[in-house]
Write a structure and sequence with these properties.
heterodimer; A: mainly alpha; 3% strand; B: Outer Surface Protein A, domain 3; 2 domains; 8-stranded mixed β-sheet; 3-stranded antiparallel β-sheet; 16 strands
Chain lengths: 104, 479
């Protein structure tokens, strides 16, 4: 780097990491990611058409539809318009009240 | 909105000067970079607000050729000095759930022969509930504690035990037994263990000093300065000050204990804020190697609490000692003002903390009853207990403590540039002030930012004028 001179350890580590990143992408096999491949039951209704008998509560969809891959469930679109929707809810058990409605 | 290719805004950093050179402290990485005029020019352009890539290149064309400007922007973008306008803060990764223990603080007794009013263990803000529990730790509990430390510190070659109290030396016979036992156990596993203790120095004898020196036990003495300051609050039960009792003992300790540096730890209270005078006395008159200061932990309405104006005065005097520290450092000498060295050590590594300290993570406390606490300050408190040495750590309680204390859930801190080092501040202080160990210590934010900036300036100046000095800080405290 020409304009920034690293003067502590973390700065030197950043230089190393960025140096590696800038070597360009290596050819790797393409692995599609997402919920379709994850064994993550709990997305559907149970055999009686209700949600009570699912092996995971439907509220867990908030996690799967929001964090792992955005699926237009009843959660804000964090990829484009509400990137910080959950940024005040680092601990859901304590801070779930901070998950607010959004008005597009 | 016009979509015209990439755009930039300023990333998250704190600018400072050191030794007449400009630096950036990058948040949240904790990285420090010295910058040149070209970087300053980009920052000046973006201070007015975000700007598109082409527009920025055009504005920089007066300063440098287009190719150079392109390269410069790439460099700044890679290091996140400048970022895309819609960048959001990324939460820090949580520490691994099986984080190995590094240090165990053993409260050998909860009894003390002094009655310092401000004591967090006995004072008005105490969290301890010692009723019905043992007052002195027995050897069985101590052995189990050593085993606990060795079992919970998988993968670490060297671990640490701190002896604490109450007054630690009121249970000196146990301390001796533990040192022998722990050394045997560690050696059998091909590991090492080292020791330190905190004491009020009233019970030091030549024999104890010899033992401490022979076994390389680090000693911190709680001491508040010259007699008239020290004796204000550090008193015996009858109200008599303890200075005259400890002064000859401290001198004998510093004279006789040559294997480890001896540290004084000063608690600043209302009326005991004459930092420079206290430092001179402890460092020059008594000969301590290091002297560290901390304002008393208290709820706001206590008589001994330092008001806001008092804290401003403290900070002014910290600056005087900090300037002196820099002069020493430029000559390659250690000054002895711990508050600067401790911060410089963290800046050198570039720490970026998920938690303000190791409590409940790499460090735990254990009380005379064998109850495990996040640290020595919570020992003997039923509310904060994390299990017992006999039954192991209560992982659910530990996880609750760590989730609360994590910087990710301290939302007030997310806009503060000093959070990589502070991470919201002491869990215990937060509990005393706000009733929640996970609450950020908002009462000292300005103070922390000012102090961090001061230490950054010193760091910058040293890195510009005497970088070899910083190598002293290369060894991490906890490895």
């Amino acid at each position: 780097m020409k304009h920034l001179r690293a003067v502590n350890r973390k700065a030197r580590r950043l230089e190393d990491v960025v140096g590696l990143q800038n070597q360009g992408p290596q050819q790797r096999p393409h692995i599609p990611m997402g919920c379709a491949l994850a064994f993550s039951p709990g997305w559907e209704v149970d055999s009686a058409g209700g949600t009570a008998g699912l092996c995971q509560p439907v509220e867990r969809d908030i996690y799967d539809c929001y964090v792992t891959c955005f699926w237009p469930a009843q959660v804000p679109d964090h990829l484009n318009n509400y990137p910080d929707w959950a940024s005040k809810c680092a601990s859901a058990t304590k801070d779930w009240r901070n998950l607010d409605l959004v008005f597009p | 909105m016009t979509a015209a290719g990439p755009a930039y805004r300023l990333g998250e950093f704190h600018r400072f000067d050191g030794g007449d050179r400009p630096f950036l402290y990058l948040v949240p990485a904790g990285a420090i970079f010295e910058i040149d005029d070209a970087v300053s020019a980009v920052l000046a352009e973006l201070e007015a607000g975000e700007c598109g890539h082409e527009e920025l290149l055009a504005r920089l064309s007066g300063h440098m050729p287009a190719n150079d400007a392109e390269e410069l922007l790439g460099e700044l973008f890679d290091m996140r000095v400048i970022v895309a306008p819609d960048t959001v803060r990324e939460p820090l990764e949580a520490p691994p759930a099986d984080f190995p223990l590094q240090s165990l603080v053993m409260n050998l007794t909860n009894q003390c022969n002094l009655s310092c009013q401000y004591c967090y263990e006995f004072g008005e803000d105490k969290v301890a509930t010692p009723e019905g529990k043992p007052k002195f730790m027995d050897f069985e509990t101590a052995k189990a504690s050593v085993q606990f430390l060795l079992a919970e510190s998988t993968g670490r070659k060297a671990v640490h035990i701190t002896f604490f109290g109450g007054e630690t030396l009121m249970n000196f016979p146990l301390l001796k037994q533990v040192v022998t036992y722990a050394n045997e156990q560690a050696t059998a596993q091909g590991r090492t263990i080292d020791f330190s203790l905190t004491t009020n120095a009233t019970l030091l004898t030549p024999a104890i000093i010899e033992f401490l020196s022979e076994n390389r036990i680090g000693v911190t003495v709680s001491m508040d300065g010259p007699a008239e300051l020290h004796d204000k609050l550090r008193v015996f039960a009858n109200g008599q000050g303890s200075y005259s009792v400890i002064e000859p003992r401290v001198r004998a300790l510093i004279e006789g204990h040559r294997t480890r540096p001896i540290t004084a730890r000063v608690t600043l209270t209302n009326g005991v804020t004459d930092v420079v005078r206290i430092f001179r006395h402890l460092k020059q008159d008594l000969g301590f190697h290091e002297v560290g200061f901390a304002p008393v932990t208290t709820s706001t309405n206590r008589l001994y609490a330092i008001g806001e104006r008092g804290m401003d005065g403290v900070l002014e005097q910290f600056h005087v000692l900090a300037d002196e520290y820099l002069q020493y450092a430029l000559r390659g000498e250690m000054h002895g003002f711990s508050n600067v060295s401790d911060t410089i050590a963290e800046l050198y590594q570039g720490v970026n903390k998920s938690h303000p300290c190791g409590a409940g993570l790499g460090l735990m406390g254990v009380g005379p009853s064998g109850d495990i606490a996040p640290c020595h300050r919570f020992v003997d408190s039923d509310t904060h207990s994390l299990g017992n040495i006999a039954t192991g750590v209560d992982r659910e309680k530990q996880s609750d403590f760590l989730t609360r204390g994590n910087i990710n859930s301290k939302y007030d801190c997310h806009t503060c540039w000093a959070r990589p080092l502070c991470a919201g501040g002491c869990h215990h202080e937060a509990f005393v002030r706000y009733g929640d160990t996970g609450h950020p210590n908002l009462h000292y934010c300005d103070w922390i930012r000012d102090w961090t900036d001061t230490c950054l300036r010193i760091y910058g100046a040293i890195s510009a004028q005497n970088p070899e000095f910083l190598v002293k800080f290369a060894e991490r405290k906890a490895l």
